Amino acid sequence: MLADHARMVTVCLADGALPDQEPRVRQVLRRAQGVARETFGVEEGLLARLAGTVVASLGEHHDLAGRLARVRTVLAFEEENYGRLLVQQEKYVAKLEAEYPLLAPSLPREEAASYYSGLKCLDREVQGGSLGPALAYKLLESHGLRQEAISGLAQLCGLHFEPELFRSHVAEQKRLSKMSTAQLLLARKGDGARELAV
Prior knowledge:
single chain, mainly alpha, flat
Protein backbone atom coordinates (compact mmCIF):
# COMPACT_ATOMS: atom_id res chain seq x y z
CA MET A 1 0.00 0.00 0.00
CA LEU A 2 2.75 2.44 0.92
CA ALA A 3 4.58 1.73 -2.35
CA ASP A 4 1.42 2.33 -4.40
CA HIS A 5 0.62 5.53 -2.52
CA ALA A 6 4.20 6.80 -2.82
CA ARG A 7 4.12 6.18 -6.56
CA MET A 8 0.79 7.97 -7.01
CA VAL A 9 1.78 10.93 -4.80
CA THR A 10 5.19 11.32 -6.46
CA VAL A 11 3.75 11.39 -9.98
CA CYS A 12 0.92 13.74 -8.98
CA LEU A 13 3.23 16.17 -7.19
CA ALA A 14 5.68 16.08 -10.09
CA ASP A 15 2.79 16.95 -12.42
CA GLY A 16 1.96 19.98 -10.26
CA ALA A 17 -1.05 18.63 -8.32
CA LEU A 18 -0.71 20.13 -4.83
CA PRO A 19 -2.41 18.55 -1.79
CA ASP A 20 -4.17 21.77 -0.76
CA GLN A 21 -5.78 22.01 -4.21
CA GLU A 22 -6.44 18.32 -4.87
CA PRO A 23 -8.37 16.57 -2.05
CA ARG A 24 -7.70 13.11 -3.48
CA VAL A 25 -3.93 13.69 -3.48
CA ARG A 26 -4.12 15.00 0.09
CA GLN A 27 -6.16 11.97 1.18
CA VAL A 28 -3.71 9.47 -0.31
CA LEU A 29 -0.75 11.43 1.06
CA ARG A 30 -2.25 11.49 4.59
CA ARG A 31 -2.90 7.75 4.41
CA ALA A 32 0.70 7.13 3.34
CA GLN A 33 1.99 9.36 6.14
CA GLY A 34 -0.14 7.43 8.62
CA VAL A 35 1.22 4.08 7.43
CA ALA A 36 4.81 5.39 7.54
CA ARG A 37 4.33 6.43 11.18
CA GLU A 38 2.11 3.65 12.51
CA THR A 39 3.42 0.62 10.64
CA PHE A 40 7.07 1.53 10.07
CA GLY A 41 7.60 3.95 12.96
CA VAL A 42 9.13 6.58 10.66
CA GLU A 43 7.94 10.14 11.27
CA GLU A 44 10.05 11.95 8.68
CA GLY A 45 11.68 11.32 5.34
CA LEU A 46 10.30 7.93 4.30
CA LEU A 47 8.07 9.28 1.52
CA ALA A 48 10.88 11.49 0.21
CA ARG A 49 13.18 8.44 0.04
CA LEU A 50 10.45 6.44 -1.68
CA ALA A 51 9.95 9.32 -4.14
CA GLY A 52 13.58 8.86 -5.16
CA THR A 53 12.91 5.17 -5.78
CA VAL A 54 9.82 6.02 -7.83
CA VAL A 55 11.84 8.45 -9.95
CA ALA A 56 14.55 5.82 -10.46
CA SER A 57 12.00 3.26 -11.66
CA LEU A 58 9.59 5.50 -13.64
CA GLY A 59 11.71 8.53 -14.46
CA GLU A 60 12.41 7.59 -18.08
CA HIS A 61 8.70 7.19 -18.82
CA HIS A 62 7.36 10.23 -16.97
CA ASP A 63 10.28 12.71 -17.01
CA LEU A 64 10.29 12.87 -13.22
CA ALA A 65 14.01 13.35 -12.51
CA GLY A 66 13.97 17.10 -13.08
CA ARG A 67 11.06 17.54 -10.68
CA LEU A 68 12.26 15.39 -7.78
CA ALA A 69 13.53 18.37 -5.76
CA ARG A 70 10.09 20.02 -5.95
CA VAL A 71 8.39 16.75 -4.94
CA ARG A 72 10.70 16.38 -1.93
CA THR A 73 10.10 20.02 -0.90
CA VAL A 74 6.33 19.51 -0.94
CA LEU A 75 6.65 16.22 0.96
CA ALA A 76 8.80 17.86 3.66
CA PHE A 77 6.27 20.68 4.02
CA GLU A 78 3.39 18.19 4.22
CA GLU A 79 5.22 16.12 6.87
CA GLU A 80 5.45 19.22 9.08
CA ASN A 81 1.77 19.94 8.50
CA TYR A 82 0.87 16.34 9.30
CA GLY A 83 2.77 16.49 12.59
CA ARG A 84 0.89 19.63 13.61
CA LEU A 85 -2.37 18.07 12.45
CA LEU A 86 -1.82 15.02 14.66
CA VAL A 87 -1.28 17.22 17.73
CA GLN A 88 -4.43 19.18 16.91
CA GLN A 89 -6.46 16.02 16.23
CA GLU A 90 -5.56 14.59 19.62
CA LYS A 91 -7.06 17.67 21.25
CA TYR A 92 -10.28 17.12 19.29
CA VAL A 93 -10.30 13.42 20.11
CA ALA A 94 -10.20 14.39 23.80
CA LYS A 95 -13.06 16.87 23.25
CA LEU A 96 -15.13 14.23 21.46
CA GLU A 97 -14.52 11.73 24.25
CA ALA A 98 -15.49 14.30 26.90
CA GLU A 99 -18.55 15.80 25.19
CA TYR A 100 -19.79 12.90 23.05
CA PRO A 101 -18.63 9.77 24.89
CA LEU A 102 -21.17 7.47 23.21
CA LEU A 103 -20.29 8.62 19.69
CA ALA A 104 -16.52 9.10 20.01
CA PRO A 105 -15.52 5.40 19.67
CA SER A 106 -17.40 5.18 16.34
CA LEU A 107 -15.69 8.21 14.76
CA PRO A 108 -12.36 8.13 12.91
CA ARG A 109 -9.61 9.75 14.99
CA GLU A 110 -7.92 11.33 11.96
CA GLU A 111 -11.04 13.39 11.26
CA ALA A 112 -11.82 14.29 14.87
CA ALA A 113 -11.76 18.06 14.26
CA SER A 114 -14.32 17.84 11.42
CA TYR A 115 -16.60 15.52 13.37
CA TYR A 116 -16.39 17.64 16.49
CA SER A 117 -17.29 20.87 14.69
CA GLY A 118 -20.00 19.00 12.75
CA LEU A 119 -21.55 17.64 15.96
CA LYS A 120 -21.51 21.11 17.54
CA CYS A 121 -23.28 22.43 14.44
CA LEU A 122 -25.90 19.67 14.68
CA ASP A 123 -26.44 20.48 18.37
CA ARG A 124 -27.21 24.10 17.45
CA GLU A 125 -29.20 23.67 14.26
CA VAL A 126 -31.03 20.33 14.03
CA GLN A 127 -34.75 20.56 14.49
CA GLY A 128 -37.33 17.80 14.42
CA GLY A 129 -35.02 14.81 14.22
CA SER A 130 -34.10 15.40 10.58
CA LEU A 131 -30.86 16.41 8.90
CA GLY A 132 -32.05 18.46 5.94
CA PRO A 133 -30.08 19.04 2.73
CA ALA A 134 -29.19 22.68 3.54
CA LEU A 135 -27.68 21.75 6.91
CA ALA A 136 -25.93 18.73 5.38
CA TYR A 137 -24.44 21.06 2.76
CA LYS A 138 -23.16 23.27 5.57
CA LEU A 139 -21.47 20.22 7.11
CA LEU A 140 -19.84 19.56 3.74
CA GLU A 141 -18.72 23.10 2.95
CA SER A 142 -17.97 24.55 6.39
CA HIS A 143 -16.90 21.50 8.38
CA GLY A 144 -15.25 19.33 5.71
CA LEU A 145 -17.43 16.23 6.11
CA ARG A 146 -18.00 14.10 2.99
CA GLN A 147 -21.40 12.65 2.12
CA GLU A 148 -20.55 9.23 3.58
CA ALA A 149 -19.45 10.88 6.83
CA ILE A 150 -22.61 13.02 6.95
CA SER A 151 -24.78 9.97 6.35
CA GLY A 152 -22.95 7.99 9.03
CA LEU A 153 -23.16 10.87 11.50
CA ALA A 154 -26.90 11.20 10.89
CA GLN A 155 -27.31 7.48 11.56
CA LEU A 156 -25.24 7.64 14.77
CA CYS A 157 -27.30 10.61 15.98
CA GLY A 158 -30.62 9.01 15.05
CA LEU A 159 -31.43 11.69 12.46
CA HIS A 160 -33.40 11.18 9.27
CA PHE A 161 -31.21 11.96 6.23
CA GLU A 162 -32.03 11.65 2.52
CA PRO A 163 -28.84 11.35 0.45
CA GLU A 164 -30.68 11.94 -2.83
CA LEU A 165 -32.07 15.28 -1.63
CA PHE A 166 -28.59 16.20 -0.42
CA ARG A 167 -27.02 15.39 -3.81
CA SER A 168 -29.68 17.49 -5.55
CA HIS A 169 -28.98 20.38 -3.19
CA VAL A 170 -25.22 20.14 -3.84
CA ALA A 171 -25.83 20.13 -7.61
CA GLU A 172 -28.07 23.20 -7.28
CA GLN A 173 -25.46 25.04 -5.20
CA LYS A 174 -22.82 24.29 -7.86
CA ARG A 175 -25.15 25.58 -10.57
CA LEU A 176 -25.84 28.77 -8.63
CA SER A 177 -22.14 29.28 -8.01
CA LYS A 178 -21.38 28.93 -11.73
CA MET A 179 -24.16 31.40 -12.58
CA SER A 180 -22.85 33.88 -10.02
CA THR A 181 -19.32 33.59 -11.42
CA ALA A 182 -20.59 34.05 -14.98
CA GLN A 183 -22.59 37.15 -13.98
CA LEU A 184 -19.54 38.61 -12.25
CA LEU A 185 -17.39 38.03 -15.33
CA LEU A 186 -20.03 39.61 -17.57
CA ALA A 187 -20.29 42.60 -15.26
CA ARG A 188 -16.51 43.07 -15.33
CA LYS A 189 -16.49 42.74 -19.09
CA GLY A 190 -19.28 45.36 -19.31
CA ASP A 191 -17.31 47.75 -17.07
CA GLY A 192 -14.30 47.42 -19.36
CA ALA A 193 -16.43 48.13 -22.44
CA ARG A 194 -17.89 51.25 -20.80
CA GLU A 195 -14.40 52.48 -19.90
CA LEU A 196 -13.30 52.08 -23.55
CA ALA A 197 -16.38 53.94 -24.77
CA VAL A 198 -15.63 56.90 -22.50
